[in-house]
Batch of 2 targets.
Target 1
Amino acid sequence: MLVSYQWLQDYVDLSGVSPEEVAELLTRGGLEVDHIHRYHDGMDGVVVGKITDSGPHPDADKLTICQVDLGNQSSQIICGATNAPKASKVVVAKPGTVLPGNRVIEATEIRGQKSEGMICALDELGVSENLVSKEQQDLIIELPDDAEVGSDALEYLGLNDVVLEIDLTPNRSDALSMLGVAYDISALLDRPIKVPEIEHGAVRKNAIDQVSVTVEAGVDVPYYGAKIINKVTIAPSPLWMQMRLVAAGMRPVNNVVDITNYVMLETGQPLHAFDYDRFGSKEIVTRRAYAGETMTTLDEQVRTLNEEDIVITNGHTPTALAGVMGGASCEVIETTENILLEAAQFDSVRVRNTAKRTNLRSESSTRFEKGLDAQGTVQAAERAAYLLEKYAGGAVLNGIVESGEMPVFEQEVELSLGAVNTRLGTELDQKETEEILYRLGFGVEDLGDRWRISIPSRRLDINIQEDLIEEIARIYGYDRIPTTYPVSERSAGRLSNTQKLKRKARRFLEGAGLEEAITYSLTSEEKSKRFRLDEFSDDVRVLMPMSEERKVLRQSLLLQLLDSISYNKNRQNNDLALFEMGAVFLPNPGEKLPSELWHIAGAFSGNWTAAAWNKTAEPVDFYTAKGIVEGLLEQLGLNEGVTYRVAKREQLHPGQSADVLVNGQVVGFIGQLHPTFATREGLPVTYVFELRGEALLTEQDKTMRYDPLPRFPAIKRDFAVVVDAQIAASEVQHVIYEAAGAWVKDVTLFDVYEGEHLEPGKKSLAYSVTFLNKERTLVDEEIANVHETIVERLQSKLGASLRG
Amino acid sequence: MIDRLEELKLEAQSAVTSSQDKKELEQVRINYLGKKGPITEVLRGMGKLSAEERPVVGQKANEVREAIQASIDSKQAFFEEAELQEKLSAEKIDVTLPGKKVEAGSPHPLTAVVEQIEDIFVGLGFEVTEGPEVELDYYNFEMMNLPADHPARDMQDSFYVSEDTLLRTQTSPVQARTLQAAKGEGPVRIICPGKVYRRDEDDATHSHQFMQIEGLYVDKHVRMSDLKGVFDTFVKEYFGSDRAIRLRPSYFPFTEPSAEIDVNCGVCGGDGCRVCKQSGWIEVLGSGMVHPRVLEMNGFDPDVYSGFAFGMGVERFAMLKYGIDDIRHFYTNDTRFLSQFKHV
């Protein structure tokens, strides 16, 4: 909402209050002023001039040489506008003036003739081109005779105005008008409101004899009123009115249209003027449109309507799309003489839907959508009639032709001082509270322990006690509400066990050198098939996706994490270690909501550690990813029951991928991206893991006790065995543990070797086994026995031989 | 004899002094103090001496031996010190070369901000609660006082996955879920961080996916002045003790009265600059007293209970705190961006 500071003064006295102060006042009062526009800033030296003589430029067909009286001086100015030869009073930018767009006006010569300044068109003074009326485009401004030569032209035009741009909250439809804003200022400043003039004359003819109004669906059109104004003369509206419309962001058209818009901006009630003689009948019928019915709107577009649209018709064909746009067939044109003026209330949801569907959001439809002052409709019609009489020479017919009842809005809300103070934490007394209510224009009836407050019809947003408390608070001043602390019983705030574990996992991964990424949950249908932990037949789909790329909810974090890998790769960030934690979404047949499962994923490419002066670069490999997973699981308290087994998964390298199992259940996987897949996706060699986090976040064991430190020494034995290269290290380890019995404390694989000195197809695994007996010192003989058992068992089970 | 001993001492001490290394020194020791050395010889020949002479010579011989030994020890210490110095000097390294650095990763700035905010509110007695990202519109809208024909419920603005389920457009549904679970019994003190989704085209200031933190404090006798107190504390903790808040009337369907909370601009300190659009204030979050309808619909008696609720945009907080100018940075995960947040 654009509010002209000068216009505002028609309704409330602003003497001594600057535009900045008004803006601050409004913002603190709940009408947030987003921006203060000063279009005239820096434009000095724009004055009213009178062209005393003019003639064609000898060397240029399209230019006119004008002698212009500027009051204290006379200047020669060359002008290119087609209306220059016949213009009289004009707007002149004198040399030295800086016009918008940093255009410096200088005394110059144009084709051998001197030119001392510029005669201006509206857009040259900073008025946006789309706010300049069609007729005015490319023309210099012609001022009326009362403009005083030599005086400040910006002031005359009202272009020295300051415009406040208000960002309205959706509840404050009452402030979608100059008067609405003025009411707030009146309350905030405690100054009276000045109501605009509506008393017009009336001819003896009755409107009711000239037209009838029939409303077919009362719910759609609670009220429809029509006035008739005869014998108007179509002409430009007065310059001041045009400039006010421009300040409010509307383009002047002609006096009749401008007046309907002016009244809408003033009161908030949209109006529409039909050409009475071209309306097509003497009956106004409002109804729902028929499916497929068409009409041509003012913008010359043919609109196909449906049964959801409300139309105004002449009994046969639509003449307007209710609340949205008038029809071209009975538009007010230059030759219009008689006006049918509509002032109505339409169902806000219908107007919103129609405006949205037809893409015709306008100043008018916006106001219908937000809801109108129930009792302002007829007033607005009378105000427009008054202005049409005054500025279009119209004769207003007696009365208004109506259908429906103006909804009687008599909201009464009870309120107690106690409620105000308990809710706000203030200590207001009865008198100051009542004063605030009066300032707001509310009726206050004292019921002893409480008030009965009657709410003016323009304030549709006030329905309950809390609404009134907010009204009191905003006029009293939010900044005057004290600062206190809640007096509730104290209790410790906390993170849940799960939240703590998630943080722990995050800290571990960060500490281990991974950077956390956050990616989008929505992905493409094609990508969503990848990296699923479980095979699900279906996706969770968005009904109206914005793009193919954001169509279904992810079932894996990796799909988007890999996008981050390629995004980085394309920017030469090659050494990457990323992780993400977040929800994946699985269809949940029979339930309304999908299952949301919390996953952890990681992706690695390039070097794990960079080359340095004392070491060579270490590229990431399968074991980098696995080591991270192992460390993570240990952090989460999962020491036992974690196993890894060879996995076959699409998109993963068949020889370098493993499933991660906890207590025999698959909880995730680790692997290298399948080279074919990586190449197709433009990805570097990348290792990934994805884990179903929920399965890892077990209740923390609060009964944990430490293991007493051993009092007897541990004994270490190293040995190497040769086995078939195909045998998994985990199998060997498993056999060692089994064979070693209760004394084994740790088995560490410290070397894996294939190659020279070994038979082809064989590998050597070197282990360090630690034995410990908590009760006594083990003797060499005992260890030798166990060692022998291990070797025998390895031999019998895996065909291993001790490497000499 | 005595003279001979004295002579030997001087001779030996001179040999110690002139020895060049440990080896020569050892030779000196063997020469003078060894089993076949002259002092041993003197002692061995004591038998021939008279009873009067014997103790005198014996004492002198011991004195001489000790004196020679002391000279040798001192020279030995000198050689050892010199050797150590040589070794240390040989072991000198360039300590300005880079260390074997343990390269840590970094939290995502949005996670960092969420955790910072969680920690402050946990300290104020709040619990952290989460809810589903795909939500029933019953919780997302209806229970938050946004009836069916409310403009905010337009299909065009939300990602619906079925007629009555959608990707939540706000974290507010967690309020409804938590209140209903509390079955009308306060206090309820929660904050709810999480992802939310709206049908916006992604650009520098819009993202179809973003993060919010919702908060709710419901109990008997909660006042709007308490909201001010809690946020004064929060803002000072989060942005710095020199910051102040300002409440402005606003509108949210689920609060009444409602307030926008502004913080004085950290760049200009409130004098007005480009960052705060000359106003001196920066809008940081929306808040208000829980609408009685919301309490009632979710099982709380509005005559007994009152409360305040608030919601803040995590991206906005991160952008304000770290001066980030493009919301897309949060979701492209450029490591040149991410790695800047190591220390936060």
Target 2
Amino acid sequence: MDVWRIDVNSRRLSKEPIPSAWRQLGGRALIARILLDEVNPLCDPLGPYNKLVLAPGLLVGHMLSSCDRISYGGKSPLTRGVKESNAGGTTGLKLVYLGIKALILEGAPQDDRWWVIYLDKDGAIFEPAQDLLGLGVYATAEKLLGRYGKDVAIALIGPAGERCQLAAGIQNLDKDRVPSRIAARGGLGALMGSKQIKAIVIDAKDGSKPEIKDLESYKAAQKRFTKSLMEHPQTKIYADYGTNAMPGMSDGFGGLPTRNFSAGHFEGLDKIRGEYMRELLLRRGGEAETTHACMPGCTIRCSNVYADEQGKAIVSPLEYETVGLLGPNLGIDNLDAIARMNYEINDLGLDTIDVGAALGVAAEAGLMEFGDSKRAMELIQEIRRGTVLGRVLGNGAAVTGRALNVRRVPAVKGQAMSAYEPRAIKGTGVTYATSPQGADHTAGLTIRAKVDHLDPKIQAEVSRTVQINMAGYDSLGACVFAGNGFAGVPETIKQLIEARYGWEVAENFLQELGKTAIRLEREFNRRAGFTAADDRLPEFMKYEPLPPNNSVFDVADEDLDHIFDGI
Amino acid sequence: MNELEVTFQLHTVLQIQTPSGTVTSLRHRMRAGETLKEALAALGLSVDPDETLIVVNRRNVDLDYRPKAGDIIHLIPAIAGG
């Protein structure tokens, strides 16, 4: 495999051997290493010195169930710190088929032309993208699939990314070629837009599966992992209900963010929860699917297709985080309305979490009534029209809070929290506060732990363990839910890596990878000017009791400051 | 013998499908002082304590918990998140 480097100014590609310090890293850990080695942490994230990195995880390439995720990274336009955001779909798989360890986009265009980068075995071709400008991701993907054929993978941005809006993500095709798998967090779509790249098309028809050094051992480990994953009880729950199995669980702990994080219980729970959604979709039929794979070969199938009363698809997938931020967080208990908002935000190429949180902040500022889904959609259309208000909202919750003078803004390091209230699930609050990524549930969610989530004294340890594991999985290209399979047979991680690459790695390779990623990320943030003061939740959460627990976030600052000691 | 009534809220795969609809909660009368384990056995509900979050008053409890009158007991098949 090679590192492919593209200068977007000269539009030239160079293929380089992998530096030795990068060799045993992948995904999130590799991105952190590349950023530390090559990007000035003080640079303007939308300027010429920032770089957009695409790095498949170490296990990507053989359709090992739920292990083909692609990581994107760069200095975050949203947090202004280190950023890795990953997605399912087919991008990671196709990059690996072309032998790409990492794709680095650098430099800045010197004129106003936009491009599609077409990658195949022979290299990179820049093709004009003027005809795609202003198009949403669904229309853009359709055009590109018509132009390049049905077998390509595509990474693309929407109008929000073109405008360098800070909540813009990068979309990827799912296995059905729908651009629904978004590397949503941290504004990496804005970074891609700053390079004036509308899409990257990956054509791997002349590529090949990566070499496996010891096929017999690999297959044996793969079989054990797959069996463990299929037998895990959570796999059936995700297949039946998707991630929207979560609202009842979050609400059960009083941790379902409601009306801009002012309550942890939502009275409309029964109309938005996964159990209701499943019955609704089964009844509606047509294009509705209660279970759907986002990556080829995934056996969990936690995705879905949400359809209207006529059975016509509205959006795919409808996930818990989106339901949480666009539903209870806005006081809205109508899944059809939530699904339609989800489609619009996807089409704009934006992160539903940060936009949902921004709308909650806007409601608090009086721009909409909580529960008014029609008005929420109007505000989303302001983003599409590019009005001043729309430009504010498309920059996410933190910017919206500043622009509208709202004090209750659920964000850390400029990035919005997802659908877990940190005053009720305090371990996740520790993750939000201390993750180098900013508030991000995927960095270390603790709600599954059988602990007292309200006890402030134990939360740092719970969060630390999960954060290290998650950083490891993000470096392998493994979906967080693949972790259920690996949890039963943890030795298969070492076996798969050694069989594929011929390396010798430690028994705790997952944790070593995770620690490496976090250590490098924290160093990047330190050089970018971050201090312990940035590892804090918003102040209102320390003194404003959250009903129904009436709890505040009271984990000691000292615990936050020392969470990664000795890592 | 003192009796008390509690309500079990059933989540996701623990909900019971019947010809007349989905059963999402069960009211249950039990002897005061009985444990959850005993109450679940009386109801015929099979719950794997390692894979189920049992939540009362928004806190995790275990099968040795002794319910109080009026408790709403959530039986939540555990998942890692969304």
